[in-house]
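Sharing a chain and its predicted structure for anyone who wants a worked example. Both blocks are below, sequence first, tokens second.
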Amino acid sequence: MGLFITFEGGEGCGKSTQSRLLLKQLEQQNIPVVLTHEPGDTALGNELRRALKRRRDSFISPQAELFLFAASRVQLVAELIRPALEEGKVVICDRFTYSTLVYQGYGRGLDFTAIKMVNNMATGNLNPDLIILLDISPEQGLARKRSLKDRFELEDLSFHRRVREGYLKMAAAEPDRWLAIDASLPKEKIAEIIWDRVSRLLPDLSA
């Protein structure tokens, strides 16, 4: 199996930037790597992403949200993530199951046991080898956005504070699998911290 790395964090934390920088670093080392994101990156996932993200007048229930994210995840794992890992590649994913735990659990108030069960069904119990949390205050993160476009960015500050709290609790509970980084640091410094941790995991690819 390859190496599965996921990026997590609140809005505006820099996940997309850092995941691309890690992709570039791995490519420079001639390491086979795939970069993907949630929700989306499959035909079905892209349709669900539009439904989940766009601003709308109608209400989407938290339970519907949970299952729509899960459906996108099932397809992404089956179509892209698991095949790449079985080929021995590094897979970088911008958001994964922990986003559901914090956004639909801490944020929306859904039952954590139910979310974990849905996540496990959606992924076939696939878990990341490393979860990189880019931590930033909601005020700073949202201020980085040029415009607030999707349903989640438009949630009130209390929602985003619950999301951050959830991330920090989960990272503290599993320090061996989580790498929490202050996302207000310069992006070059963040990339350096990430590469230091990831490079130590790379020999495991040959195991």
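Comments welcome. The two ends are 9 Å apart (CA to CA).
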